[in-house]
Specification:
The complex is a heterodimer.
Chain A (H helix, E strand, L loop, with lengths): L1 H18 L12 E7 L1 H17 L3 E6 L3 H9 L5 E4 L5 H9 L4 E15 L7 E3 H8 L17 E5 L4 H11 L15 E3 L2 H10 L3 E6 L8 E2 L1 E3 L11 H6 L5 E9 L4 H10 L2 H9 L10
Parallel strand pairs in A: 1-2, 1-3, 5-10, 6-7, 6-8
Antiparallel strand pairs in A: 3-11, 4-8, 4-9, 4-11
Chain B lengths: L14 H32 L1 H5 L2 H4 L4 E2 L4 E2 L2 H32 L2 H14 L4 H19 L8 H25 L3 H9 L4 H12 L1 H17 L2 H6 L20 H9 L7 H39 L1
Helix pairs in contact in B: 1-13, 4-7, 4-10, 5-7, 6-7, 7-10, 8-9, 10-13, 12-13
The chains are: A alpha/beta, B mainly alpha.
Chain lengths: 293, 306
């Protein structure tokens, strides 16, 4: 009984010590924890960054989890996390709510990403214009034969509406970047809870069309070449075509902090944007920033 | 307590006895308190919906909360169709399995079957969801020639499967509790074995069987994870006959998928709680109907069975 009590007391002490996650006096750091939550698009990248960074700076503990850009931003607004990953900009309402909570979100661009449109490998369609993709996702085109494919119904796959990729795709593709448009995804669109859900369905269903970050496209899906204008150049997504600006569906990826980052978090973000951090971006199929500094 | 033991001597209550008695009473009351608190919480968080969203908008057919389309109909109907399908699959199967185990199977087989069926109940729903996503839904697409396998039917099959162990286990217990003299009496009067089962044993165990079915259906309507993974989550109205072969979005999947994202106190947040309220009320009604059925039967069969 006594032993148990001692053990309990000790473990409590250890716990307490682990919880003290601030920079100690005179800058000596011990067990600093960074909470990093948000976009599922970024999560793999963020995990890789965290692993590499912790190899070099073992005193820093970075916990990364996904859930969607909205989840990360909500966490930042509620003051639960240090860094929110987002594959879209914060909405004005979100910034307002944050400010009402006394938090001033600061935006950091950390990489770029191409959004690939994918279909089953057996699908004969290999090129589409933005207009056609918009018509497909808003339900105006419902059969593959209307865009040069077989006579099959089109099954629309999308990420859940809390995904930044979903919001970006709605604004830039379904609405073609038109702010006044009120076009929506067709109600028949399947909202998949994960990237894996989309790729699993695209892999095995010849009727399906889906979209996801380029880093998530595996070899057993076929990426569609996209043209911005009818009659324009059809371009496949890749690091080069995004950097050259020819692939039309690409976007920046963000991290948000509460206020200007301080201390360890500032160092971490600077490292992410350094040559070393950006090299990892390329490894995972995302598009690195042009590092000038 | 005092009703159960009318002749309890007053002076013999020891302190531990007093303590235990109070403790049991408190736990019993706590269940009701928790239920009431949950209900109050849902009402508190969800009631703002009816101030913020006009009632007419809630009865629209479009659910897209990002743009303030809060039509609940596709979600409510989605839950309904998936649960109906699950009930159609699991109720007959569950009842028949229970009858087989309790009445027909030889003793040794029964000893094996019962624990195995109870183990089925322990399979995590995410695992079943994977199974549904990677095995059941491709089969549905290929065999039934549906445009996609992520359909209401896939959800119903998975939910039916998940409800089965509950139904079988509880119904079997009920059948088992029917006194042997009933069966012997029926057989002695010249009934065949099947007549004895269907006319005597099953009706005698009716209240337990109804409970089993309600518990099963309750499990089905509240299940989230597996459903979210296999039904495709498209918020469309399941009105036509082929809706079983189309994707649907259930209330539970909607709450699970969207609750993590919403800003606390926003209209979307309130509407999700209102959805939870709808779910709660529906489950409550199911249980109420079950209780009422049992009560009525209790009266009718009261003399026969007590």
């Amino acid at each position: 009984m006594k032993k148990l009590g001692v053990a309990l007391g000790l473990s409590l002490l250890v716990l307490l010590a682990a919880c003290r996650s601030s920079v100690g006096k005179d800058g000596a750091r011990k067990a600093i924890a960074i909470q990093n939550v948000g976009s599922d698009t970024i999560v793999n990248l963020a995990v890789r960054w965290a692993e590499r960074y912790q190899e070099q700076y073992p005193e820093v503990r970075i916990t990364v989890s996904g859930g969607g850009s909205g989840t990360g931003i909500a966490g930042l607004i509620n003051g639960m996390i240090d860094i929110a990953n987002a594959s879209r900009r914060m909405k004005p309402e979100e910034i307002e709510t944050a400010k009402a909570n006394g938090i001033e979100p600061v935006e950091h661009v950390i990489a770029s990403d191409a959004i690939a449109v994918v279909v089953h490998p057996s699908n004969p369609v290999d090129r589409l214009t933005l207009q056609q993709i918009s018509d497909i996702y808003s339900g105006r085109i419902a059969n593959w034969s209307e865009v040069g494919g077989e006579d099959r119904p089109i099954i629309l796959l999308s990420r859940e509406s809390n995904s930044g990729t979903h919001v970006y795709f709605l604004e830039q593709v379904v609405r073609l970047g038109d702010k006044n448009s009120d076009a929506l995804f067709s109600p028949d669109t399947l909202l998949m809870p994960s990237s894996e859900g989309i790729s699993a369905e695209v892999r095995q269903n010849p009727n399906a069309i889906g979209y996801d970050g380029l880093g998530y496209v595996t070899d057993d899906q076929k990426t569609i070449a996209v043209a911005a204008e009818p009659g324009g150049l059809y371009v496949k997504p890749s690091i080069e075509t995004v950097n050259r600006g020819t692939y039309p569906i690409s976007r920046d990826l963000y991290m948000y902090t509460a206020g200007e980052p301080q201390g360890v978090i500032a160092e971490y973000l600077a490292w992410i944007r350094s040559l070393e951090g950006q090299a990892i971006v390329g490894e995972l199929g995302f598009v690195p920033l042009e590092v000038g500094e | 307590m005092s009703k159960l033991l009318p002749n309890r001597p007053k002076t013999r209550t020891t302190f531990p006895e007093y303590f235990v008695e109070r403790f049991i009473r408190v736990t019993g009351v706590l269940v009701i308190v928790f239920l009431a608190l949950i209900f109050l919480f849902l009402v508190r968080e969800g009631s703002a919906t009816f101030l913020e969203v006009p009632l007419r908008d809630l009865f629209q057919t479009r659910w897209y909360p990002n743009e303030a389309y809060f039509g609940l109909l596709p979600l409510v109907l989605g839950s309904l169709i998936v649960t109906l399908g699950a009930a159609a699959i699991s109720l007959p199967l569950g009842l028949l399995t229970a009858v087989f185990i309790a009445e027909v199977a030889p003793r040794w087989m029964r000893e094996i079957l019962k624990p195995f069926i109870e183990v089925l109940a322990g399979i995590p729903s995410v695992v079943l969801g994977f199974l549904g996503m990677l095995v059941v839904s491709p089969l549905i697409r290929e065999w039934l020639n549906a445009p996609t396998g992520l359909t209401a039917l896939a959800g119903s099959v998975m939910l039916g499967y998940m409800a089965l162990p509950t139904i079988v286990s509880v119904a079997e217990d009920a059948l088992d509790a029917v006194p042997k003299s009933y069966r012997d009496g029926a057989l002695a009067l010249g009934a065949t074995r099947w007549q004895a089962i269907w006319r005597v044993t099953v009706p005698a165990a009716r209240s337990g069987i109804v409970t089993a079915m309600m518990l099963g259906v309750g499990r089905a309507i509240g299940e989230t994870m597996a459903v979210m993974m296999v039904t495709g989550n498209a918020a469309r109205m399941p009105l036509t006959l082929n809706s079983f072969l189309m994707p649907v979005r259930t209330m539970t999947a909607t709450i699970a998928a969207e609750m993590g994202e919403v800003a606390q106190g926003s209209t979307h947040y309130h509407v999700l709680f209102a959805l939870g309220l709808v779910l709660f009320v529906v489950t409550f009604i199911i249980n109420l109907v079950a209780a009422w059925t049992i009560f009525r039967q209790g009266k009718r069969y009261g003399r026969l069975l007590s």
